[in-house]
Design brief:
The chain is α/β, with parallel strands linked by helices. It folds into 4 domains: 1-30; 31-92 and 110-335, Glycoside hydrolase, family 3, N-terminal domain (TIM Barrel, Alpha-Beta Barrel); 367-562, Rossmann fold (3-Layer(aba) Sandwich); 624-741, Immunoglobulins (Immunoglobulin-like), CATH 2.60.40.10. The protein has 19 helices and 29 strands. It has a 7-stranded mixed beta sheet with strand order 3-4-5-6-7-9-12. It has a 6-stranded mixed beta sheet with strand order 13-18-17-16-14-15, sandwiched between helices. It has a 5-stranded mixed beta sheet with strand order 21-29-28-23-24, with no helix packed on it. Helix 1 (44-53) packs across helix 11 (319-335). The protein starts with 19 loop residues before the first strand and ends with a strand. The structure holds beta-D-glucopyranose (BGC). Beta-D-glucopyranose is lined by residues 86, 148, 195-196, 274-275, 404. Beta-D-glucopyranose (BGC) binds next to strand 7. Belongs to the glycosyl hydrolase 3 family. It comes from Flavobacterium chungangense. Pfam families: Fn3-like, Glyco_hydro_3, Glyco_hydro_3_C. One of its GO terms (molecular function) is beta-glucosidase activity.
Length: 742
């Protein structure tokens, strides 16, 4: 068993532009296409020479971990270890070489960036690119070669313990955020390691569960972001997941690693295993794995260590096979200038510039869900006191739970954000309100891969409740910070339900009853059942595990310095059982799990089955209002290789400048195959000044309208009529355009 429990305890910018960015000018709004730089083959002669000088043991030393986060190098030939760091939230603190305890360094403080769900909620590809470049610089400052990021598995169930780390339930949004992130990261002479490939959508039984997904669903929902990461982002590495897919572990899955990843997509980088996800020697290697990483045990006991040397000596594995994997690793090391690298990016870490990058992303990630009678932004005239209620007002989330976190010197909490931003004349009355408490006997559940998440104590402490009600009563305005945290939402276990933990529901209802001027802020990475609260409160704001500057960004949204522009990257159901994996009773399975809802993941299910969500995918309010005008396509009919260009004017009809996301969904009513009611096929975030208009153009390559045909193994664009719906959420469609495909 992977002993990562120790993780619980601790828990410029010199940019070298190596990728090419294409700028297409359309209707006044520049559109950037992010395309990564392919791994070069120019080093091949040098690589062949190095390989010819290496012993078998030296070669095999490169194919497995020789410490917790490095694989072996060959010093005498100038080949360095390949140095990895965990990543989605920022560069993880240095871990000891042979166990999970922190190395105890003083120079490994880093910027904590918003978690994946937050980044996706920006619906802003430029933010994703900034996220990548900023993080890449931090990685280089720590002298690493590879970041174990981004994590892009599809959010299949809202219960998923890693929903906060992942990006979306939608494959299109997922890939459009993942690719610029990868491109930005790799501009800094480092490798992205895109994880967890693939079909790793639950934590329950993740070590062995055999995931069954029909081929069309695999291609249309679970693979597109990985495919785009490889084909467009040119990711230099991929992490094989823990679980099985169609009977084979993903780190020894010939279909997924050899056939799809390499043969079909042309992947040239390295496949790294998840930590201790390898189960065989010759089979894993032949089926596509390049580097085995893992958790504490003597590194020579790994499957791709002494056992592999023996397998070569016995003739089971050929040395030519070994050379193939070594060559892949050497190529990536040359590519990121880890070998022979002149002018390799040096990076910078935890700089003010990086905190400001985190701030900008955080500010665009916050989603305004309800705002009755303009309760927000808070008007401070006459306000002398503000009650700040809830453990989440002070809870930090850079570290916590099971899995990678960031050791940081800056994490501005919501309370600190308000203290920083409110005028000093306003008194803040803080009350913890609820206590973060777990049942003692279930504490050990954290990280227990076969159980569901931690069991919380949901009774309020009477004195804490009283204190909160007093604070609310005696203040002009109350703000409750509720939701979850990274101990509750965590890798290695899924949540048991979508109820608010720690008695928060009761606390919120009672505070609302004593002070009607109460704002509810949810700090969480995944959906919760908040229908009752949403009905009663006049203002509901959603923020995330939102990075080093999260508290400042939140205060700026609450006070109106930032006009919110985040949109939900997943559906908020009214109740868990409305979600597809649960409505079809196909979660979490036992030894196997069958994704019975097929392609109808997320809003595809809710829209097709006509189930009303609490808040739909793509939804989020602004302090201003927008009108969509003059929607048109550039032609009436298109051939299959063409691109549909849809233009629309976004008019800011309110009094505040703001950003809006134009979302384009496609539907085909008379399709000969089952189709979702609608599918996201384009989006664009645009800034519009109050009273003015901005033209927006969204390009939809006709091939995006294709479905995957299992019989012919091809993407097929059916001819005929398609409806393109333009809106600012999946349920708020403002304009429809019909186009014909020839
Ligand atoms: C996680 C990976 C992570 C690795 C190393 C695994 O348990 O699934 O996402 O990169 O550990 O910490």
């Amino acid at each position: 068993m992977k002993n990562k429990i120790l993780q619980l305890s601790a828990f410029m910018a010199f940019v070298v532009f190596t990728s090419c960015k294409n700028y297409a000018q359309n209707s006044g709004v520049a559109q950037k296409a992010y395309v990564g730089k392919e791994i070069g083959t120019g080093f091949d002669a040098k690589i062949d020479k190095l390989i010819s000088q290496m012993t078998l043991e030296e070669k095999i030393g490169m194919l497995h971990g020789n410490s917790m986060f490095t694989s072996g190098g060959v010093k005498r030939l100038g080949i360095p270890e390949l140095k990895m760091a965990d990543g989605p939230l920022g560069v993880r603190e240095e871990i000891s070489r042979d166990n999970w305890s922190p190395a105890g360094l003083t120079n490994d403080f880093a910027t904590y960036y918003p978690a994946g769900g937050g980044l996706a909620a920006t619906w802003n590809v430029e933010m994703a690119h900034k996220f990548g470049t900023s993080l890449g610089e931090e990685l280089r400052a720590r002298d690493k070669d590879m970041l174990l990021s981004p994590a892009i598995n599809i959010v299949r169930t809202p219960l998923g313990g890693r929903t906060y780390e992942y990006m979306s339930e939608d494959p299109f949004l997922n890939k459009k955020i993942a690719v610029p992130l990868i491109v930005g990261l790799q501009e800094n002479d480092v490798m992205a390691c895109v994880k967890h490939y693939a079909a790793n959508n639950q934590e329950t039984n993740r070590d062995f569960v055999d995931v069954q997904i029909d081929e069309r669903t695999l291609r249309e929902i679970y693979l597109p972001a990985f495919e785009a990461s490889v084909k467009e982002g040119k990711a230099y590495s991929i992490m094989g997941a823990y679980n099985k897919f169609r009977g084979e572990y993903l780190c020894e899955n010939d279909y997924m690693l050899n056939k799809i990843l390499r043969d079909e997509w042309g992947f040239k980088g390295v496949v790294v295993s998840d930590w201790a996800a390898v189960h065989s020697t010759g089979k894993a290697l032949k089926n596509g794995l390049d580097i085995e990483m893992g958790t504490p045990k003597p590194f020579n006991e790994f499957f791709l260590a002494d056992k592999l040397i023996a397998a070569v000596k016995s003739g089971e594995v050929s040395e030519t096979e070994i050379n193939l994997h070594v060559k892949r690793i050497l190529r990536t090391l040359f590519q990121v200038k880890a070998i022979d690298g002149k002018n390799r990016a040096k990076g910078s870490i935890a700089t003010e510039a990086h905190y400001q990058d985190a701030y900008k992303i955080a500010a665009e990630a916050i989603v305004l869900l309800k705002n009755e009678n303009n309760a927000l932004p808070l008007k401070l005239d006459g306000v002398k006191s503000v009650a700040v209620i809830g453990n989440n007002a002070t809870k930090k989330n850079a570290l916590g739970g099971f899995g990678a976190g960031v050791k940081t010197k800056r994490e501005v909490t919501p309370l600190e954000g308000l203290q920083n931003r409110l005028p000093s004349s306003i008194k803040i009355n803080y009350a913890e309100g609820y206590l973060e408490r777990y049942e003692e006997k279930n504490k050990g559940n954290l990280g227990n891969l076969t159980s569901t998440g931690p069991v919380t104590i949901d009774q309020l402490d009477p004195s804490k409740l009283q204190e909160a009600l007093e604070a609310a009563k005696n203040s002009d305005v109350a703000i409750i910070f509720a939701g979850s945290n990274r101990d509750y939402e965590t890798e290695a276990s899924d949540r048991r339900d979508l109820k608010l933990p720690f008695g928060q529901e009761e606390l919120i209802q009672k505070v609302l009853a004593v002070n009607p001027r109460t704002i509810v802020v949810m700090v969480a990475g995944a959906p919760f059942e908040v229908e009752e609260i949403s009905k009663k409160t006049s203002a509901l704001v959603w923020t995330w595990f939102n990075g080093s500057e999260g508290g400042n960004a939140l205060a700026d949204v609450l006070l109106g310095k930032v006009n919110p522009s985040g949109k939900l990257p997943w559906t908020m159901p009214k109740k868990l059982m409305d979600s597809p994996a649960h409505a079809t009773n196909s979660f979490p399975g036992d030894k196997a799990v069958n994704y019975a809802e097929g392609i109808l993941v997320g809003y595809r299910w809710f829209d097709t089955k006509k189930i009303e969500p609490l808040y739909p995918f793509g939804y989020g309010l602004s302090y201003t209002s927008f009108a969509f005008e003059n929607a048109k396509a550039n032609k009436a009919a298109y051939a299959s290789g063409e691109t549909i260009s849809v233009s629309i004017n976004v008019k800011n009809t309110g009094k505040t400048d703001g950003k809006e996301v134009v979302q384009l969904y496609a539907s085909k009513s008379d399709s000969k195959v089952t189709r979702a009611a609608k599918e996201l096929k384009g989006f664009k975030k645009v800034f519009v000044k109050s009273g003015s208009s901005q033209p927006v153009t969204i390009q939809v390559p006709v091939k995006e309208l294709a479905y995957y045909d299992v019989a012919s193994k091809k993407w097929i664009v059916e001819p005929g009529k398609y409806t393109l719906s333009l809106g600012n959420s999946s349920r708020d469609i403002k304009k429809e355009i019909i186009v014909n495909i020839k």
